[in-house]
Amino acid sequence: MAFWLIGHIADPLLRKLAWKKLKGIFVSKFWPQLVYDDIFASDKNYYRATAANKPCPRLETDKSYDIVIVGGGLSGLATAKHLLNVGIKNIAIIERHFVGWGASGRNGGEILPGFTAPVTRMARRYGLEFTKSMWDLSTKGVADVVKTINELDIDCDLRPGYVLAMEPEGYNQKSVESELDILEKIGHAKTFKSSQQTCAMLGCKDGYYKAGLHYTDAFHFHPLKYLYGLKDYLLKQGVSIYEETPCIHFENENDGLNILTPKGNLRARKLVLCGDSYLGTLVPHLRRKYVLIRNAMIATEPLPDTDNILPSGVCVSENKGKLMYYRKTADNRLIIGGGDTIRPNNDPKDTRKHIVELCQNSIADIFPQIAGIPISYVWGGYIGITSNYLPYAGSKDGKIYYMGGYSGHGVNQTHIWSALIANAIKNENLKTASPIDRLSHLPMPGLGDYDNYLAQLGMLAESVMEKFD
Ligand SMILES: Cc1cc2nc3c(=O)[nH]c(=O)nc-3n(C[C@H](O)[C@H](O)[C@H](O)COP(=O)(O)OP(=O)(O)OC[C@H]3O[C@@H](n4cnc5c(N)ncnc54)[C@H](O)[C@@H]3O)c2cc1C
């Protein structure tokens, strides 16, 4: 209640008084929840428990850099790497918490080509050429992650293969055929698997899925081990990383920018905003591009018999229904998440109970042989969903660059847009020189206040649009 009052009355007032610097320091010191209300903050995250982070210092004094990146997730670290690749050095990354604290250290670990926007809808709305260029980029994004793992020799449990599993509920043979047809036309054909073949690959209950699309060009990994490996590399290359250093505010100053953090200010020629769904209202026009939904996951105890669950080693996501996604970890646990985790209230206990029930019920349905298996970890994160399930990236003024809006399909995309933004910075361009330059996103009202309602509305619209896919 107190935070609600502060958020709805005191915060807008402070903003109006243009008391930005003072407010930022005050709020981030005494009410970090206001800077970002994270109901998953105290959760037990499998990735954090199984990867070793070497902490970086806070920013304590004023400094100058050529480029400052806000956000220490996949977008931020991949941007630093791509900037180095185009010859730009003197880079700092500032992260409010620690590297991998956001969605990048909480996700399903599925490295998939494509986008959350269904390929059929992309083709219908934007044409085949647009869809092909986007999918070509997405496979480059996947390849970039794998190349980075191999080149930097990062031990992050990389495994190949993915199956898009067709839920019986709402299964539509015609729409699967048109999806396969478009994928083939744009040069990204996938292999159709019958119900029997799919269930044999997954080790699930006979007939549980109606069919599956097998992607041999997809992978899964431990995302936090990957990020920590990338972080080590960047530090060795001379990139400065400051943890526990929130960007409170930034302002134009002569030919550059002044970036405010609680203990020191940074001067930079350019700023790259890589906070995605955790950026909050730092830049209001970016916050209007998406609604936030919550998504959560669990990890079981190590499986008693590892051969009868996911014997093919692939990762999986469902195309409809509860939209569960799952895979087996290197230490033979089942990680599973997804479903209807949008909750109308903010009670963390309620949310956690809901997640565990949902995942336990899904395990019992899909893999009855391990129904009731104890759960060791429960965690979750936020996903920023745009109106067209497609991302945004670019710059308005050539000083501030941004990327985000991956709509829950971000591992490949962080590597696509960071590479294109690094090129844009190098060439002093405002655009990414990619098909997304022509996209516009429906602006979402309320700066987050109505996200629950907008998300429910979006789901309703989605169920109508699915009829045309
Ligand atoms: C539960 C879950 C499962 C998912 N599963 C998958 C999956 O299997 N495959 C897939 O492709 N995608 C998945 N996603 C989406 C994917 O994880 C994200 O799209 C991707 O990680 C976004 O990376 P990012 O670096 O842009 O943002 P983040 O990883 O969220 O990082 C942003 C960082 O910016 C920091 N930050 C924000 N504002 C400030 C500020 N003012 N000052 C300093 N720091 C700031 C935050 O603290 C945060 O650490 C999933 C997401 C969730 C939540």
Judged by helices, strands and strand pairing, the structural class is alpha/beta
Shape: globular
**What proportion of the residues form beta strands (DSSP E)?**
15-25%
Distinct ligands: flavin-adenine dinucleotide
Q: Could you give the count of β-strands? A: 17
Biggest β-sheet: count, sense, barrel? 9 strands, mixed
- Unreliable spans: 15-20, 27-37
Give the termini separation.
43 Å
Overall radius of gyration: 22 Å
Percentage of helical residues? 25-40%
Summarize the model shown.
This protein is of the alpha/beta class and 469 residues long. It has helices spanning 2-16, 20-30, 32-35, 46-49, 74-85, 119-126, 128-152, 173-185, 195-202, 223-236, 284-287, 348-366, 410-426, 451-465; strands spanning 63-70, 91-94, 110-111, 159-166, 191-194, 211-220, 240-242, 249-253, 256-260, 265-273, 290-300, 315-318, 324-328, 334-338, 375-386, 392-395, 400-404. Strand 12 and strand 13 (324-328) form a beta hairpin.
